[in-house]
Amino acid sequence: MIHISPENFQLPVALSTDAANVDALYMLVYWFSVVFTVGVTGTMLYFVWKYRRRPGHKAEPVTNNTTLEVTWTVLPIFFVAILFHLGFKEYAHDALAASNALEIGVRGQQWSWNFTYPNGKQDASEVTIPINRPVKFVISSQDVIHSFYVPGARLKKDAVPGMYSSITFTPNTIGDMQVFCAEYCGKSHSGMLAKIHVVAEKDYEDFLKKGDRLDGEPLDAYGARLYKKNACYTCHTVDGSKGNGPTWKGMYEHTVKTTSGESLKADDNYIKESILKPQAKIVDGFTNVQMPPFTLNDEQISALIAYMKTLE
Ligand code: CUA
């Protein structure tokens, strides 16, 4: 939750060590602009008043003034060079990861963020990282251009299909950072959110060892959680209303008609295939949005099916 107070009236609370440098640069450019805007506008208004037309004063044509012209050319070049130097230094610093950085894969797809840890563990819409350790997010896209945007770390990088990009920072506050998608990527772009949980090193180690399903969690409850986590709701409703994809209400074991004119029963095998290879059989009337394939394990698919069964 972002609270607005005088300290963060312009910028959200900084949650990484690098954010303070970006904020310092921002404030420098901000006050630089304020001083020059007030100075230039003030001088202009003063001259308008001073040289206004009045009786007894005749306008004289102005010729050149070499000193003035050299000054107003050299001085701004000097200022712009300083601003460029400071900005580029910080940009280079943020673009290069420390050698001990924790590398986490980020894959954008319509319409969720998916994360892969160094040990192969995967998670959707949330990622857990340890505090005070540099992290490098290696970003890619499954379909169209998305943009991985973390305001708390003052960083944003496009997720472009067919290439990798990265951002790196060191979180210094325990708690959550909000992730947005900052590139319009289709109907549910605004719902493409994620949370970065910053935890103590020990809690991160424990988290890596834990499975995804909670202890004693019923399969259908786990499925309901996966439905939210994987942002299935951006396309599939569970109350029968129309979405980008077929509603899940009453879908299980009912007959669906595919685009090839075939009628088939939405059983376990069909649902599994539709999750892993969504383009194999498309339900008639849902061709305008292409569902991306999801990498879920067998237990997760069973959990989603168990959840669908409760939606009769
Ligand atoms: Cu992804 Cu907008």
Describe, in short, the structure shown:
By secondary structure, the chain is α+β, with helices and mostly antiparallel strands.
Please give a structural write-up.
- By secondary structure, this protein is an alpha+beta fold.
- The protein contains six helices and twelve strands.
- A five-stranded mixed sheet has the order 3-2-1-5-8. Strands 4-10-9-6-7 form a five-stranded mixed sheet.
- A hairpin with a 2-residue loop joins strand 1 and strand 2.
- Helix 1 runs antiparallel to helix 2 and helix 4 crosses helix 6.
- It is elongated.
- It binds dinuclear copper ion.
- The site of dinuclear copper ion has 9 residues, from loops.
- Strand order across the biggest sheet? 3-2-1-5-8
Q: N- to C-terminal separation?
A: 36 Å
Order of helices and strands: HHEEEEEEEEEEHHEEHH
Shape: elongated
Instruction: Point out poorly predicted stretches.
Output: none
Number of helices: 6
Q: Describe the main β-sheet briefly.
A: 5 strands, mixed
Work out the radius of gyration: 28 Å
Helix content: 25-40%
Number of strands: 12
Mean pLDDT: 87
Strand-residue proportion: 15-25%
Q: What compounds are bound to the protein?
A: dinuclear copper ion
Helix-and-strand structural type: alpha+beta
Helix and strand topology:
Layout: H1 17-50, H2 66-95, E1 102-109, E2 112-116, E3 122-124, E4 126-130, E5 135-141, E6 146-150, E7 155-159, E8 165-169, E9 175-181, E10 194-199, H3 201-209, H4 219-229, E11 255-257, E12 263-265, H5 268-276, H6 298-309
Parallel strand pairs: 1-5, 4-10
Antiparallel strand pairs: 1-2, 2-3, 5-8, 6-7, 6-9, 9-10, 11-12
Helix pairs in contact: 1-2, 4-6
The structure holds dinuclear copper ion (CUA).
